[in-house]
Sequence to fold (317 residues):
Amino acid sequence: MLQTRLVESTMRCPSPFRTLLFASGLVLLACSSDARAQELEPRTYSPSPIGTNFLVANYTYLTGDVLTDPSLPIANVRADIGTWSLGYVHTFGLFGQTASFGLQIPIVSGNLRGDVFDAPEEVHRAGLGDMRLRFAYQFLGSPALSPEEFAKRMPSTALGASLNVVAPTGQYVPYHLINVGTNRWAFKPEIGVSQPWGNWFADATAGVWLFADNRNFFGNNTRSQDPLATLQLDVGYDFRPGLWISANIGYASGGRTAVNGVANEDRQANVRYGLTFSAPIARGWSAKLALSNGFVTRASGNYKSVSLSLQYRWFDH
Fold:
């Protein structure tokens, strides 16, 4: 398999070339985490009444090329990754404003193929992915209202902040270059604003991913990653409550990786665009379809993405 060829090759190679092979493995290892950084999720700062519960089942399929350093002995790398996830979000009042807490647990299955020393190889990975937690707080425009009070409010500008945490709970095998889990913590502080104009709305978010080191990368090596800044803009239209469409664009910059302090040439400066459509399908139920694609990809995965979510909403009282 692909990682076996890489292991055998590193055992035969001198130390500098071994480092290059580690770097090539990093590109493959980063598929799931880079996909997370490329998400285009609109309306994350839209107000909701307190005591709202959301249960969300999601499937996301990514397919596309993984861009590698031309000097490395791996080329024509392509990834096909499917992720099933189950998430829960609860809103509550905090200091007179609305706050929320959510978690998401994914299961990942992916195939990666490429040419290693000009020989085609393929590897499959599947298992439990890294758990994701999110706390959000609305500073402006989202007072703590009951569902009845919320239904009577006039929409206004909403301003909030959030903290995403990715915990190293996913499947990880230290002697594999390619893994489902990343074996490290990641944190993303973010600010966001949501602005309605009649039936139209616009959202903007700015955040930065901060990564802890993986100190057991491919044995006893240390993998580190620079901060990855993200910006996103969404513009959409509400046809009626629960039925809306949104155009999305996102930018990611930074995220250069290193192995044992030796930096890799994989700094990102990527732009993605997408379209999201949400519709109610029954009382308390809604479905959402999201499509996205790379516009400019200078490093990491150049993915096409299709995501389908089914959401159930209920109130505490």
